[in-house]
Design goal:
- The protein has 202 residues and is α+β, with helices and mostly antiparallel strands.
- It has one domain: Nuclear Transport Factor 2, Chain: A.
- The chain is 32% helix and 34% strand.
- It has a six-stranded mixed sheet, with helices on both faces.
- The radius of gyration is 17 Å and the shape is globular.
- The chain starts with a helix and ends with a helix.
- The model has no long low-confidence stretch (mean pLDDT 95).
């Protein structure tokens, strides 16, 4: 049986990881650049549907996209599981995204999962790699299961190039090929290179 100090240390690690993920969600909803960046290691890569890049690039892209598309929004964090192995952790966190839109439908609701590899460096847990998966949305019709672009909150405004980029990325699966099972979780560097080549830097 683990000793009390070992259990306490694990509980503190788990609390630090939860706080990290909460900083991300609150930062995006409050347009707080520093708070978002505090959730990531500077060399992290986030594959986020129609985006793939570094934390700095992600902040520029995400805040611009949300400002143009929505009046307000919430990233609600739900089920959370986390496996910790020393200074590396793998987490799967369900999210529900709710937004008041500037045009079109007044309200958008969608859900998915943040698949993260977190690392503790210099005593701080932060995201080192992230793949964002979209699992559902309040659509008007049943989507093509292979169309990864169908359930993003801005699907109606996606360009052909953005749809193609999304559909070449990692998708959800209802078996162990789902990215949540990857150990370690990695983001293919070619995805970021393809993103920059097609859309430039933010």
């Amino acid at each position: 049986m683990p000793k009390i100090d070992e259990m306490t240390a694990e509980l503190w690690d788990r609390e630090q990881i939860r706080r990290c993920l909460n900083r991300y969600a609150r930062g995006v909803d409050c347009f707080d650049r520093e708070l978002i960046l505090s959730a990531f290691h500077p060399d992290a890569i986030d594959e986020h549907g129609k985006f793939a890049g570094t934390p700095e690039e992600f902040v520029n892209w995400a805040l611009d996209m949300h400002e143009r598309a929505q009046l307000s929004h919430q990233h609600c964090l739900l089920n959370h599981s986390c496996e910790i192995d020393g200074d590396i952790a793998h987490a799967e966190t369900y999210f529900m995204f709710v937004a008041m839109n500037r045009r079109g439908k007044p309200l958008t609701i969608s859900g998915g999962r943040y698949i993260d590899r977190l690392e503790m460096r210099n005593g701080a847990w932060r995201i080192a790699a992230r793949v964002t998966l979209r699992d559902w949305s309040n659509l008007d019709q049943v989507p093509d299961a292979l169309d990864l672009s169908a359930m993003t909150s801005t699907a109606a405004s996606l360009s052909v190039a953005e749809r193609k980029f999304m559909n070449k990325g990692r998708g959800r699966a209802r078996d162990r090929s789902d990215p949540s099972y990857d150990r370690p979780l990695t983001v293919d560097a070619a995805r970021r290179e393809a993103y920059i080549a097609q859309f430039g830097r933010h």
